[in-house]
Amino acid sequence: MSRVGKKPITAPAGVAVQVKGQDVSVKGPKGTLAFRVPDEVEIAHQGAVITVRPRNETPRSRAMWGMARAILASHVEGVEKGFERGLDLVGVGYRAAMQGKRLQLQLGFSHDVLYDPPEGISIAVPKPTEIRISGTDKQKVGQVAAEIRSYRPPEPYKGKGVKHQGEVIRRKEGKKK
Predict the structure, then answer these.
(1) Which of 9, 23, 93, 100 lies deepest, with the highest CB count within 10 Å?
(2) pTM, whole model, 2 decimals?
């Protein structure tokens, strides 16, 4: 039995959930998200409670059961509260700034890196060495953070680069004489 899949999802007040066949739409104060549940999974919606069950006992349907429940729960949380990720820039001369909706990064290259955020994602730069990414879709927020980090991932000798807030960089010792 899936421990994640067994838990029912409770939609809080202010969040409306619509189920039409395999399509689930979640609407809340922060926006609207839609998800098409895999055919191996069955959705039941009664009042403010959503339950997810597998249609049969194949390994794939059991895997889709837990995944569908986790995605629906994050959609409900996203339209109610939203998600936020933070990035830190570590290194001399590494800084970020906003140019309208675009993110401008100076990461030690001969040119500035410009990043256009996708629809539904907002980026803020409270300090030149800190980036805040927020949105309603958990997957999109994480993907944007990973794309920005990939421009200059932290290196293990000095720890310079773009890192997630709270991320611990395993440091290596330099060459010895």
Answers:
(1) 9
(2) 0.88
Asked if 92 and 75 sit in the same domain, the reply is: no
pLDDT digits over 5-62, tens only? 889 999 999 999 999 989 999 999 999 999 999 999 999 988 889 999 999 989 999 8
d(CA 13, CA 34): 19
Nearest to 97 by CA among 134, 127, 120, 133: 127
Give the integer Cα–Cα distance in Å for 132 and 122: 8
The CB density around residue 47, as the number of other CB atoms within 10 Å, is 8
Same domain for 120 and 50, yes or no, is no
- Domain hosting 68: range is 3-80
Alpha helices per DSSP H over the chain: 3-6, 59-80, 138-150
Identify which of 37, 49, 45, 43 has the alpha carbon closest to the alpha carbon of residue 11.
Answer: 49
